[in-house]
Amino acid sequence: MITPRTVIGARFMKAGRMYFFETRGVDDVDLNDFVIVRTELGEDAARVAILPTDSPLVMIDPPLGNVVRKATGADLFAMNKHKRMEEDATRAAAEMARARNLPVKILGADWQFDGSSLVFFFSSNERPDLSELNAALAAHFGTRIEFRRMGARDETKVMTGVGTCGRELCCSSWLDKFSNISIRMAKDQDLPLNQSKLTGVCGRLKCCLIYELETYQEVKGKLPKLGDTFHIPSCVSGSCGTSGCATTQGVNVVKESIVVGMVDGTRKELTATELGVSFTAIPAHTKGVGSYGSDEIPRQERPTPISEAGEGQRKRRRRRGKRRGGRGAPPS
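^ that's the sequence the OP posted. Answer follows.
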């Protein structure tokens, strides 16, 4: 018999990945409280996101470690001190990298709570040799140094910013996992294929293109397609005397209605209720979300190209036959 384990869900950083830790008797915690946890890398501070539970449905990953204690006043003071030290470490690492003419951009730093290691996040278009910089930083800070390379989306997540909607970026405020975004999602939602409108601050396709995708697929999948000819509900048993008295001329997903052209030349707008079409409720989006590895940084993503006008045409294939005047041509 498997004994259920009581775990809590916590995050090391805002909008970071959710990790689970065995409580080991530390159950007196509330949401957004800080706790000190122990992992293979040492002790660190995390913010509680899921209260203690033994439900196997909640714990989607095995526990990463265990909870040592609820953060005390001294722990909170040490966390604020590390926060200031991270800003100084970022500036110092950027100056050292600039002095050595390394093609890297230092994005931030993260001190381990117990001071056993210092992690630097960087981005670069090349593969620089950071061994000399690693040794210099280790001598300067007197601790173990790690470097983690970040992609375009992860760089924006760390640097934060404001989107075109006027709100803080989703990836830096609440989105903990990146989805696989493609240009087909914009096509399914009838969005104009304008690169400046579809790309975000990171230069990749916007993550919000997937938020309403399943709703559009559900509505457009059950309503008549453009060009379909059918009998409207008021036309009983084909009393109009034609193969179809209405032709779909437009679909409005937001209003859940269609515009049809009648055989007499008039146009009507029919709602899904009038057509007898019902839709199932769309649950919280979970499809297409990739999980990270053992750390907070996923693999570096490649830019998604957006085809412009004329690029989608098929290229002419060369004939595999022998060219005129070639090696195998008959003598003239």
